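Task: fold both queries, return tokens.
Query 1:
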Amino acid sequence: MDIFEYLSRFSLPLPGQVKGLVSFDFDGTLFSDTWTCTERIRLFDLLINLREKGIIWGINTGRNLPYLGEGIREMFQGVAKAFAPDFLITMERHVHLRKGEFLVSDIDWNNRCDDAHEALFRHHGAMLDSLLADLEFEFSEYQLSRQEGDVYSLVVNDAVCMDAVAEKIDNVIAPYPEIVTQRAFVYLRFSHKDFNKGTALRHLVRYFGLDPRTVVIFGDGHNDLDAMAALPEAYCCCPSNAVSEVRQAVGKSGGFVSQHSALTGVLEGLELGVLPRI
């Protein structure tokens, strides 16, 4: 059963009037090795509370769709009130949205996204292949590898090592403004500048006809900065495990920086930051 079919079993109708949305990063924000069933139950209690106020929710992640599906199934285990997200953004760029009881791919957006990346990698593939080979040699002690099914990507053995790798990459791609990187702890992906967590979320905000001021963004990694920058009017929150750049961006915007990590921090952000604003 694919993730769309699975989630159709948990779908709820959209509110009569969609008044806002909450966008959650997944790994390190919602999902972690330390989350508990009690926390996940509390999360969906809060999401139901928000839904009664016209606020929908979704996930904005670097995971691909099958991998995200694995995490969502774990997220729903033991939670009787769990209900399907109203949108998904996967690989930091592909959009999937609710049509009736089903989540479906946004064909127009995703085709434009795929066409842009195909052209980008066709034009710059040789340069990127050479860069990746150089990185694998120069930083061999960091155990660099490519993500399966995602040729222009990297995984390193820890997030600290990624700082040195990312600095080298930034210097090499600087003359090519159409190429950017999406970085999330030990993962890095090359991408087209026009398609990221921010532009995809902004597209969804337009789709639902929302004022950006009614948007809430939760995130913890470098790739979440795109979403926060694309929607500067949004209310931003982060858990304590967020990278320093995210904590600084959230604090500067007047958002909520939790003293707790991962899902515990998300719950605090919802209870003390988001709900009092609605």
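Query 1 returned. Query 2:
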Amino acid sequence: MNKERKEELYEVVEYLEDASIALQEVRNEEQDAYDDLSEGLQYSRTGESMQNAIDEMDSIDTDIQKVIIRVNNMIKPPKKNKK
């Protein structure tokens, strides 16, 4: 891969990292809102919906982190051990 395309992939990684940060901020806001609910409301349909959204955002962020790792590995493949 040439230097120009590698630079473009570095930008992709930056975008993904920014997306991850933005997603974490929304997730944390939703978690704070959920935590502010009374215990009874946490077990209501609304509370369960909020918890499902939090769980889904956690899962999406995990996926983003995996993509970041894969792109970084493509840019800088791990060195092979010499035997």
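Both queries returned. Flag for query 2: The chain has three helices and no strands.
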